[in-house]
Every structure is written in structure tokens, then in C-alpha cells.
């Protein structure tokens, strides 16, 4: 689907749909990136829907405690509300988070993978990757893959259907990935995240970095969905999708340079949704279509319904890139965390069906 400026403007001017209702009694919901903005507002909604256990996964303990207080104040939450710390620019932190889950986690029904950086500054993490790529396209998949066995076990034990929601964006419609990136030998993530690539491309390398990370989020969700084992006559044990909250008034672009930040703020003041309104899309992706959850499997969610992703995602080149990206991400994460290869081999199919 093509999604130009006119379509985007029209979409942003639509009245936000009401939040989807559901009964989450007894279920466990984990929201990644829940300290502020969309993640925090989604957590408030899940609390109001009666989640039996709600986990806010945050980078900062101070902001995380403030988020816990806000959820409590907004909902008078009576069930189990927890703060777990994880720093997505550090694989070691993600591994500790996942190891803690393996030891103490238990049931997990809904995982909202909400994490991104909005930056135009090239910063390399200690793991050797550009920071926004590591947060959105490596550490987020690492969290998802490490928690996948627990979600599959939950689905089997309780006869339920889990949900993995990968937060993407309509910005993916405008992402530009040079052909040399996905046709080269170095690898997609390795090339996009290298200092050499950024020296070569100059400022343009970071101008569309946010949209590129969101495109890769869409690809990851589709690739994972295609590999979730599905019985011949039933829905998948876990529904995986990606979601677009729309442009919302959040802190995501707080690190942009002054002039660009002012421009973005001006646009937001005219057409942006509130964080609460945007978070309703998360809730729909996580609990919508309860009678036929398979309708949301592998889909890009936008405006409270499945929507066609960009033309590039669904054409032959996009499908080729999706396969390459999956293999590369699994390889990188397998080196960062020895449990990844075992999980992929033991729990995920090898066929590609998207």
C-alpha cells in the first residue's frame, strides 16, 4: 500500500476509536518500555482491564517507580503490579532480564514490545551496534525470543492464545533502505549500524533511521508470525502482529536537533494523538478479535484493523529482505545469548509463509 502525506494527514485527523474492552482476569501482561508515553498509557489500560499481573519493563528505576505510581493512581490497581529493569542498549542487561524471567516469571499471556529511539546522532553501543538499531531491532527481538518459550507454555497449560505486539509505525511506509544494504555481503543490521556506512552516507544515514527501524520491526513481526507453529485446524498458540499508534505527543523525539524538534512539535500540536489515544491501538492488537484472534496474526494493525503494509514489505524484494533479516538477527542474537539458537530450533518452524 502507498501511504502519502495526504493519506497520513487524513488518518491523523480521524477521531480515535474507543479502547477495546476485554477481561484479563488471571492473565499476565508485560509491557516493554513502560516508563512514559504510549507504553505507560497502555499499561494503564491493561490494569483497567483487570490483568492479574502487570509487569512494567523500564530502563530507569526512578521513572519506572513513577510509572508504577501513575498506574496505581489511575486505576487503584488491586492485583500484582511489578517493575522490572532492563536496558535495551545493553545485551547483558537483556540477558539478565530474561534469565530472571526464566527463574521467576511463570505465566505470560501478552507481551507488548514497545521500544524505540528517535535520534539523528550516530551512537555506537558497547555491543558494537548503532543505538537505535540495537534497541528496536536487536534487543527487542531478543526479549521476544527469550520469553517465547514461557508464552508457548502458558498457551498450552491454560488453553489460551497469547499475543506478541511489536510496536511499529506508519513511518515504515517512507523508509528508504539502499539496495546495496540488503544485496551486500556484510548484512543488513551490520551495514546500517556501521560507522563506515554513516561516514559514507553522511547526515542522510540518520535522517530516515527511525522509519527504517520501524520497517525492520514490521519485517521481524511478519517473520516470527510465519514461524509460530500452527495446528492444521486451529489458531496459532500465539498471535504475533505489529501495530501503528500514529503520531502521538510523546517524548520519543526529545533528542532531535532544535530546528527539527520545533518542526515536529509544531506538527504534533496540530494533528498528533495523545499518548492515551495512541495506546488504544496497542490494546486492540493485544486483545482485539477475541472470537477470531487468528485474523490479527502476522498483520500490521492500524486504525483498529489490519492494514496493508508498504508495497516494499509485500513485494519480492521485501520478502527476500525479510528472510535475510530474520537469519541475520538470529545469528547476531545467537552470539550475544547462547539460549537464542536453542529457542529458535526447538520452538519455531523453519518454513517461511508470509
Alpha-carbon distance between the two ends: 16 Å
Overall 3D form: globular
Low-confidence stretches at least 5 residues in length (pLDDT < 50)? none
Mean pLDDT: 91
Q: Provide the CATH superfamily.
A: NAD(P)-binding Rossmann-like Domain
Helix content: 40-55%
The topology string of helices and strands comes to HEHEHEHEHEHHHHHEHHEEHHH
Strand order of the largest sheet: 3-2-1-4-5-6-7-8
CATH topology: Rossmann fold
SS field, number of helical segments: 15
CATH class: Alpha Beta
Q: What percent strand?
A: 5-15%
Question: How many β strands by DSSP?
Answer: 8
Give the C-alpha Rg.
19 Å
Please characterize this protein's 3D structure.
The chain is an alpha/beta fold. It has one domain: NAD(P)-binding Rossmann-like Domain (Rossmann fold, 3-Layer(aba) Sandwich), CATH 3.40.50.720. It is 50% helix and 11% strand. The chain contains 15 helices and 8 strands. It has an 8-stranded mixed β-sheet with strand order 3-2-1-4-5-6-7-8, with helices on both faces. The longest helix has 28 residues. The mean pLDDT is 91. One of its GO terms (molecular function) is oxidoreductase activity.
Please give a quick description of this structure.
The protein is an alpha/beta fold. The protein has helices at 5-12, 37-48, 61-75, 91-104, 131-158, 179-183, 188-192, 195-201, 204-207, 209-227, 258-271, 275-287, 311-314, 316-336, 339-347, and strands spanning 28-32, 53-58, 80-85, 110-113, 162-167, 238-244, 300-302, 306-307.
Quick tags:
about 350 residues, Rossmann fold, eight-stranded mixed sheet
Amino acid at each position: 500500500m502507498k501511504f502519502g502525506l495526504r493519506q497520513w494527514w487524513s488518518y491523523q485527523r480521524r477521531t480515535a476509536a474507543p479502547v477495546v474492552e476485554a477481561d484479563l482476569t488471571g492473565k499476565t501482561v508485560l509491557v516493554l518500555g513502560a516508563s512514559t508515553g504510549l507504553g505507560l498509557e497502555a499499561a494503564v489500560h491493561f490494569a483497567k482491564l483487570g490483568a492479574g499481573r502487570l509487569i512494567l519493563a523500564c530502563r530507569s528505576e526512578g521513572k519506572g517507580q513513577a510509572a508504577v505510581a501513575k498506574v496505581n493512581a489511575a486505576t487503584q490497581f488491586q492485583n500484582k503490579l511489578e517493575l522490572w529493569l532492563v536496558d535495551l542498549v545493553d545485551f547483558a542487561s537483556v540477558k539478565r532480564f530474561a534469565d530472571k524471567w526464566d527463574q521467576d516469571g511463570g505465566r505470560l499471556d501478552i507481551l507488548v514490545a514497545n521500544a524505540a529511539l528517535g535520534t539523528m546522532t550516530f551512537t555506537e553501543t558497547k555491543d558494537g551496534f548503532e543505538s537505535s538499531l540495537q534497541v528496536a531491532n536487536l534487543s527487542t527481538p531478543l526479549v521476544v525470543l527469550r520469553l517465547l518459550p514461557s508464552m508457548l507454555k502458558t498457551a498450552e497449560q491454560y488453553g489460551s492464545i497469547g499475543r506478541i505486539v511489536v510496536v511499529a509505525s506508519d513511518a515504515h511506509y517512507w523508509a528508504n533502505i539502499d539496495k546495496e544494504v540488503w544485496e551486500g555481503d556484510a548484512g543488513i543490521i551490520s551495514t546500517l549500524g556501521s560507522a563506515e556506512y554513516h561516514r559514507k552516507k553522511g547526515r542522510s544515514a540518520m535522517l530516515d533511521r527511525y522509519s527504517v527501524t520501524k520497517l525492520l520491526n514490521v519485517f521481524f513481526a511478519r517473520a516470527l508470525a510465519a514461524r509460530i507453529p500452527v495446528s492444521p485446524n486451529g489458531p496459532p498458540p500465539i498471535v504475533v502482529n505489529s501495530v501503528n499508534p500514529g503520531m502521538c505527543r510523546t517524548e520519543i523525539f526529545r533528542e532531535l536537533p532544535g530546528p527539527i524538534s520545533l518542526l515536529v512539535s509544531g506538527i504534533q500540536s496540530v494533528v498528533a494523538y495523545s499518548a492515551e489515544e495512541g495506546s488504544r491501538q496497542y490494546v486492540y492488537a493485544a486483545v482485539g478479535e477475541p472470537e477470531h484472534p487468528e485474523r490479527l496474526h502476522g498483520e500490521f494493525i492500524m486504525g483498529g484493523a489490519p492494514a496493508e503494509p508498504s508495497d516494499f514489505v509485500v513485494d519480492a524484494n521485501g520478502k527476500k529482505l525479510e528472510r535475510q533479516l530474520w537469519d541475520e538477527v538470529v545469528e547476531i542474537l545467537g552470539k550475544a545469548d547462547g539460549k537464542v539458537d536453542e529457542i529458535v530450533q526447538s520452538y519455531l518452524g523453519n518454513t517461511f509463509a508470509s
